[in-house]
Amino acid sequence: MTANDFRRIALSLPDTSESSHQDHPDFRVGGKIFATLGYPDDRWGMVKLHPNDQAKFYEAQPNVFIPAKGAWGRAGSTTVRLKSAKTADVKRALQAAWTNMAPKRTTPKPRG
């Protein structure tokens, strides 16, 4: 998985736009960030999961999906080690993060 693969998958989700936050690319739906790239460096991505989903991804692949440090991690922010990640797993994580942040009434859910 590369940063460009992560970007391509994120942007394939409905109504997603790419922007920038704290000098890092981010991906938004309904104006809310659901994923970022490049923090702490270009080997990483991040997805905003529910804590229960975060636990499932981490338990399944602790070398790929790692809770962020501090309060952000406890709230579900999960770093993604891109080099070790499989496309299908990142796609599922991005879809879950997108669903968490998408406006509930106005945006169709991703298929996949």
Describe this structure in words.
35% of the residues lie in helices and 28% in strands. It has 112 residues and is α+β, with helices and mostly antiparallel strands. The protein has one domain: Aspartate Aminotransferase, domain 1, CATH 3.90.1150. A 6-stranded antiparallel sheet has the order 1-2-3-4-6-5. Strand 2 (24-29) and strand 3 (32-37) form a beta hairpin. The protein starts with a helix and ends in an 11-residue tail after the last helix. The model has no long low-confidence stretch (mean pLDDT 93).
Number of strands: 6
Query: Largest sheet, described in full?
Result: 6 strands, antiparallel
Unreliable stretches (pLDDT < 50, length at least 5) are none
Mean pLDDT: 93
> What integer value in Å does the Rg equal?
13 Å
Q: What share of residues is helical? A: 25-40%
Spatial separation of the terminal alpha carbons: 18 Å
CATH architecture assignment name = Alpha-Beta Complex
Run of helices and strands: HEEEEHEHEH
**What is the CATH class name?**
Alpha Beta
DSSP helical segment count = 4
Q: In the CATH scheme, what's the topology name?
A: Aspartate Aminotransferase, domain 1
